[in-house]
Amino acid sequence: MTLAWIDTPTACHAHLAPFFATDPHLALVDRVAPSRFARGDLLWVLRAHGDPVHFAWTRHDGWLDLSYELGRDACWSLPPKSVVIYDCYTLGAARGRGHYPVALRCLCDHFPTATLWIYCASQNCASLSGIRKAGFAWQQRLCRWRWLSQ
Q1: pTM score
Q2: Is there a domain that residue 14 lies in?
Q3: Position 62 in a domain
Q4: Pairing outcome for strands 2-6 and 42-48
Q5: Nearest to 89, CA basis, from 27, 2, 140
Q6: What share of the chain has pLDDT > 90, as a percent?
């Protein structure tokens, strides 16, 4: 298996477009890619036997941004040399074969001096399992509270 990074919207589109019909999530990723690349994020592609099987993003600007998951202004400053792994996705036909933990271990190897952060929804059992298998330790639990008033 090989892991390689992509750093331009054009290269991203070339890798993702063949899967739009079968994996609609990747079309969404393609739409948000330009803004992610503009802030310095990288898209990583894990290949098995030459075929893409898993995609993951990394963020390198010192912020953990959970606005999409937790609502507006859900950002935290991280310690120096932190890398956030986010929006990981295994192609449907490749699921259940252990590609996710392999991709995470490869990212750990690629960033040996960084502190790596990864997160997922607490009900996402498949992601939690893959994260544990890759050797990550649970650090914090983030919760969102919505206050309603009359």
Answers
A1: 0.85
A2: yes
A3: yes
A4: antiparallel
A5: 27
A6: 48
How many domains does one find in the chain? 1
- Output the six-digit token pair for 52: 């893409």
Question: Are the C-beta atoms of residues 121 and 69 closer than 8 Å to each other?
Answer: yes
- Give the model confidence (pLDDT) of 80-95 as tens digits: 999 999 999 999 889 9
pLDDT band for 149, please (50, 70, 90 cuts). Answer: low
For the chain, list the strands marked E by DSSP: 2-6, 42-48, 51-59, 63-65, 75-77, 82-90, 115-118
Element (H, E) at 131: helix 125-133
Q: How far apart are the first and last CA of the chain?
A: 56
- Of the pLDDT bands very low, low, confident and very high (cuts 50, 70, 90), residue 29 is confident
Q: What amino acid occupies position 99?
A: H
d(CA 41, CA 59): 5
Is position 64 within any domain? Answer: yes
- Let me know: does 36 contact 94? Beta carbons within 8 Å: no
Backbone phi, psi, residue 100, to 5°: -60, -55
CATH number at residue 45: 3.40.630.30
| Residues 104 and 72: beta-carbon distance below 8 Å | no
